[in-house]
From TrEMBL:
<dbReference type="Pfam" id="PF11985">
    <property type="entry name" value="Phage_Mu_Gp27"/>
</dbReference>
<dbReference type="InterPro" id="IPR021874">
    <property type="entry name" value="Phage_Mu_Gp27"/>
</dbReference>
<protein>
    <submittedName>
        <fullName>Mu-like prophage FluMu protein gp27</fullName>
    </submittedName>
</protein>
Amino acid sequence: MPPRSKIARLPPAVKDWLDKALVESNFSGYEALAAELRARGYDVSKTAVHHYGQEFEDRLHDLRIAHEQAKAVVSVVPDEEGAMNDALVRLVQDRLFKLLRSGDGKIDLAKVGRAIADLGRASIQQKKWQAEVRAKVEAAAQQVEAKCRAAGISPETLASITQDIYGIA
């Protein structure tokens, strides 16, 4: 197994600086970035910075595309129920499970475990939020129903209002 890259071994603060500098320079100026790293006491070549920069730019590009596609999907198919998030959680869980089953020696079990725990918490929070919203809608519908009955509104009008509240119309 090859040794970890010098970029991967940089302290988090220095790596954060490099990431920001790469984005600000539009992924160019690798010689200057390598020189700045050397000035800060880190022996990193222009080639290493360039290799890291290209991988980082590719990941950033993929994230931007995914973000734009997600925005487009949500604008066409609103997701009040959180089904898209639920599907995403399931997809990530599936990928993590496949990663674990593959037996690939490069897997950091601590990170995978943390990711699984985070996904579980996210799923639980989403379900909790959905239950809270449903309870609020139910309470609002009951209040409107009681006020409508007290005001003598017809059952047909009441049914129409209830359907509007629940979004069933």
